[in-house]
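Let us work through a complete example step by step.
Step 1: write down the sequence.
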Amino acid sequence: MIIGCPVSVNGYLFEFSEMKEKPLAKDQQKSTETPQKEQFGGDIRYIAIEGVIGVGKTSLASMLGEYFSARVVLERFEENPFLERFYEDPEHYAFQTQMSFLLSRYKQQQELFQADLFHNILITDYIFEKDKIFAYLNLQDDELKLYETVVGAIEKNILTPDLIIYLQSSTERLMENIKKRARPYEKHITAEYLKDLNEAYNYFFFRYRQAPLLIVNATEIDFVNRAEDFNELLKEITRQNRSPVEYYNPLKKKGTQKEDM
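Step 2: predict the structure and record it as tokens.
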């Protein structure tokens, strides 16, 4: 998997390095109620949230964005004209849906390189590489060859997150969340499809090494409606001296289980 290096985009890292080295005036500093970037060890500027449909990626990204006064960039899934038809007839509309998502995600990723002088932290509710998870799950062999040709030509210069939060959940909980939010284009999603998608995500992240990874078992927590759950998760996200891959399982104990995967 080819991951583009941000230094190849002129000006982006220079802008951020200047911001990092220049201290804020006392009257510009945030109150101690809001964690500063130093709580991430000073190196976390881009956090990406990932997980299967219905796990709460967008909700968590928005909540963290508000908490940290961060710039939040959300995936524009509602702009895909083929999405609802794909859920109705996956075999017929998989390729059109996939290519529409690929080009939309690529265009949005290029916008991430623009320096933001008003926010120290960037948060997204997806990573560009997720596109391949869906492609390998849904496309036929001949479609996949064409897809790989296109993605191979455009996947350079993609910004790599400083931290990825992968939210895991059971198929049953995902179906429950999807039913609750009642999006019309998701009414045809089946438990079987979510099960396959869950397995594909786990397979992908079990081997992922491009960025630090925090895997969260979100099956039994509700960080949207329970402040305690959000605060506990926040402690894991902001904790310093983390390993390249860590697992947070609130079902086992209040703390983080570290694993070298």
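Step 3: interpret the result. The longest helix spans residues 90-111.
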